[in-house]
Amino acid sequence: MDESGAGGRKALTADSTAARAARLAEAAVSALVEAVALTPTPGLTDRAGPGPGAPDAATARWAALALRPGLAAMAGAAARTGAATGRLREELGAIGRAAERTARVAACGNRQHRGAVWALGLLVSAAALDEGAAAAEVTATARSLALLRDHGAPRVPSPGSSVSARYGAAGAKGEARAGFPHARRALEALRGSRGRGTDEEDARLDALLGVMSTLQDTGLLYRAGPHGLRLVQSGARTVLDAGGTGTATGREALYALDEELRSRGLRAGGSEPLFAAALFLDRIC
After folding, report:
1. How far is Cα 185 from Cα 191, in angstroms, rounded to an integer?
2. Which of 16, 121, 204, 265 could form a disulfide with 51 if both were Cys (CB 3.0 to 4.6 A apart)?
3. Residue 143 and residue 121: Cα distance in Å, rounded?
């Protein structure tokens, strides 16, 4: 075998890996942009966000687009490593923290899409490790990555970890270490609604509300305590119990919930990245 032939195959393999990483990153970013653009979402970023300094939809979209290089780098690192190892976990953590900083700059200093970097970063990496895997297999691999220790992670407790410890909420780390159950249920709800002939927008809204109805959103707990969390959860369940957003009663309940959350300055931001994760899995699996 001549050296030029071996070198050519290595270059082809590298190009294929980079192309797949780029495709996965594009699918993840598109899913996040679509999650941000979905409307009317109660208290989220389809219109001006609630509360002073909250990002609007245009800023959130711009910050989402800024994540593309970081997500591609994570998928590429996973594809090159080929297994869920501690070394890969630390590399993903370093890339993820850089991606968070990039998104913050794009969002004019707002901590936008931090949860999406964590969730989508793990999922694109898991998908890169197992091409053609089903959604349950991708989330299981992401769980394996999340359970590994990142020795480079900051040791200072975050607001989310403090709230998790105080209230026993799973938080973003707990969600990943459980294999993203909310994202999997949202995907199941989305596909089930489509199978029943539900309009795509209503199917997506109902899937998002399903996440909101049960997620222990640590951001909400931090800002508004258990009362704020219960308000969001019960409001989302009210919409679904009324028949969902495709019914007149459900749509009226949705508008009422949106108005109440905005008037109180409450944002169920933890639900958005998990819904985006469901859209990502829907695209690739």
Report:
1. 10
2. 265
3. 12
131 vs 54: which has the higher pLDDT: 131
CA atoms within 13 A on the CB side of 262: 17
Phi and psi dihedrals of 166, rounded to 5? -70, -45
Exposed / middle / buried, residue 277 (Cβ in 10 Å: 0-12, 13-18, 19+): buried
**245 in helix, strand or coil?**
coil
Residue for token pair 């270490």: 177
Which region, left, alpha or beta, applies to residue 55 given φ > 0 means left and ψ of -120 to 50 means alpha?
beta
Whole-angstrom distance, CA of residue 232 vs CA of residue 270? 12
| 54 three-state secondary structure | coil
Q: In whole angstroms, what is the distance from residue 284 CA to residue 276 CA?
A: 13
Give me 275's structure tokens.
Answer: 């819904």
114 is written with which tokens? 């931090």
Is the pLDDT assigned to residue 70 strictly greater than 70?
yes
The number of beta carbons lying within 10 Å of the beta carbon of residue 17 is: 17
| pLDDT of 50 higher than 60 | no
Distance of CA 272 to the CA centre of its chain: 6
- Amino acid letter, 26: E
Cα three-residue angle 277-137-142, rounded to 5 degrees: 55
pLDDT, position 10: 54
pLDDT confidence tier of residue 11, bands split at 50, 70 and 90: low
CB atoms within 10 A of CB 153: 14
Residue 85 sits at the vertex; the CA angle it makes with 80 and 86, to the nearest 5 degrees, is: 120
Cβ contacts of residue 133 below 8 Å, gap of 6+? 126, 127, 141, 285
Token readout for 269 is: 């931001």
